[in-house]
Amino acid sequence: HIKMGLIRSHMISLTPEEDEQLQPILWKVIKEIIHTAWENQQHLIIEGCYLPNDWKMAFHEQERMAIAELFLVLDPAYIATHQKDILNYARVIEQRKTEHASLITMLIKENEAMKQACLKHGNEMILIQEDYDLQQIVLQAKRKIANQLDRVFETNRLLVRKMNQDDLEDLLEMLLDPIVMKAYEYPFQRKDGEEWLKRQLERYEQDGYGLWALIRKEDGEMIGQAGLSNQSCEGKQVLEIGYLLKQRYWHQGYAKEAAMGCKRYAFEVLHAPEVFSIIKSDNEASKKVAIAIGM
Length: 295
Description:
Elements: H1 2-8, H2 19-39, H3 61-65, E1 71-74, H4 76-81, H5 83-89, H6 100-121, E2 125-128, H7 134-149, E3 151-154, E4 158-161, H8 168-175, H9 190-206, E5 211-216, E6 222-233, E7 236-245, H10 254-268, H11 284-292
Parallel strand pairs: 1-2
Antiparallel strand pairs: 3-4, 4-5, 5-6, 6-7
Helix pairs in contact: 8-9
């Protein structure tokens, strides 16, 4: 609509088909709308195909942390096997004049270009390869947006973010596993997991930190939790680094990577004077992680 408004008002002398020339003009307007929304702490949704692949370059770090990008990409194989559905819905929202065969060819070309651009620039992408399951797509979108908006920090392989109620089942996979929880004095039940999650959410509000979700970048899987919490040690309150992973992600360096990130966060962001690892004497795996990060 911004595009057609500029064209029909004769503010620009381009046609709707001249996308390559239109993009930089539209981006000048759209990026300032985004800047304004951020300055005024307003929610905003920008939809359309006129965002440059390197859009992140237009914003500083604080702005980028408040923006969740999401690119919906159709795999060429999906387009080829779902031509009838695509053609049936092609003109539902807009009256397109493109011929059917040309539309399919154009979609394959555009979506493949978008996929490669997302991979090159690290933009969040949902790739539809088999079924266009709207409910699943919405769920994936919510997770990706939550990952970005609740982001605390990142490491090479992990995105570390605040937990939310949608993480309960992943959390229970750890907390109900007796091998994972062998350092604790009693077996956990579901209600204990619910209380655990509630306590972290309260810590975020009260302290500004707590145990956070560890999200593996390559597939968006929550593989564990790590973070900072106030604990009692030898008669005083100290800031402790904690970490807990699903059993199938042990021995892959994730605990060390997450713990090191938490240590950096404690010193560089919270400016903590000291940070501790409180470990039971027989927990050899946790001791190795603490030693590896210089605790």
